[in-house]
Amino acid sequence: MARNNLNVFSMIMGLGLAVAGTSAGAAADGDSLQQVVERGKNLFMTATFGGKGRHCNTCHKGGGTAMSELPNGKKFPSLSNAAAIFPRYDEKHHRVKTLPDQVQHCVRDALEGKPPAYDSAEMTELVSYLTSLSQGKRIEMNGKPK
After folding, report:
1. Quick one: pLDDT at residue 7?
2. Which of 27, 68, 80, 105 could form a disulfide with 61 if both were Cys (CB 3.0 to 4.6 A apart)?
3. What's 5-49 look like in SS3?
4. What is the rounded average pLDDT of the residues 62-79?
5. Are 111 and 56 in contact (CB under 8 A)?
6. Distance, CA of 146 to CA of 81 (rounded, Å)
7. CA of 88: how far to CAs of 8, 22, 62, 95, in Å?
């Protein structure tokens, strides 16, 4: 059993590195990390991804740094540790989800838009911005949002 868990962990880490390796090259050559993070923040605040006029900040207030509330009154935590808690196990779908998976889910289902591709500049920018929010946070894979 322990060997199987190690094999699964190795496979997950390999997939994560593959996604990181492809998306990292999507940013323009010569861009600083800060430039990529700033573009990600701009996307977070303004991009509708062809959806129904909503953007990430519609639900995730304060650029993702504040507790938020949906129109139906449901409250949810900030994204201040989002990058520190992924990958996460999705009990409902019985699979491991990465931060880019979660970005695609939110764009597709909440914004009703077309999610950025895993290897796109937009995904690199959004994930870089979300990761910047977790700067200094303790890594807790499969942890709880705070």
Report:
1. 43
2. 68
3. HHHHHHHHHHHHHHHHHHHHCCCCCCCCHHHHHHHHHHHHHHCCC
4. 90
5. yes
6. 6
7. 13, 21, 24, 8
CA-to-CA distance for 89 and 15, rounded, in angstroms? 15
The pLDDT value recorded for residue 6 is 42
**Whole-number Å distance between alpha carbons of 48 and 32:** 25
In order of their start, the domains of the chain are 2-133 (1.10.760.10)
Please determine, for residue 16, whether its predicted confidence score (pLDDT) is greater than 60.
no
Distances (CA, A) of 121 to 14, 20, 64, 116: 21, 12, 20, 8
Between 69 and 27, where is the model more confident?
A: 69
Q: Which long-range contacts (CB under 8 A, 24 or more apart) does 58-65 make?
A: 58/111, 59/106, 59/110, 63/133, 64/130, 64/133, 65/133
Q: What is the pLDDT of residues 103-134, one digit of tens each?
A: 999 999 999 999 999 999 999 999 999 999 99
Between the alpha carbon of residue 107 and those of residues 35, 57, 75, 86, 117, the distances in Å are 22, 12, 19, 17, 11
Residue 84 belongs to what H/E stretch?
A: helix 82-85
* CA pair distance 59, 93, nearest whole angstrom: 23
